[in-house]
Amino acid sequence: MFINLLASETALLIRDILAIATVVIMAIAALAAIILILLQQGNSTGIDALGGSSETFFGKNKGKSLESKMKKWTIICLVILLVFSVIYFVVPYNTAIWG
């Protein structure tokens, strides 16, 4: 009986630690995504957008620019946020996983 009680308390402690860690990871990913989005420049700047696109240095080397790296990291942060929020909100606390 004591072993079962200890095991259930351990499972509850692990569940609480995982829930806190998940929320912390979601908060860090959300803040990083917000910062990265605010640092990025818009795709079109004023009246220049009406003239169409021309081949520029940044167009040729789009994969190597800082802007493309920031877009890539923004997508990574948002995917992390999506995955952990699904895990946090879909896996309920009262399942057979936690005892």
Descriptive account of the structure:
With 99 residues, this protein is mainly alpha-helical. 68% of the residues lie in helices and 0% in strands. The chain contains three helices and no strands. Helix 1 packs antiparallel against helix 3. The mean pLDDT is 77.
Helix count, DSSP H or I runs of 4 or more residues: 3
The major pleated sheet works out as: none
The secondary-structure element order is HHH
Low-confidence stretches: none
Gross morphology is elongated
Instruction: Report the mean per-residue pLDDT as an integer.
Output: 77
Proportion of helical residues: 55-70%
Could you give the distance between the termini?
15 Å
In short:
This protein has 99 residues and is an all-alpha fold.
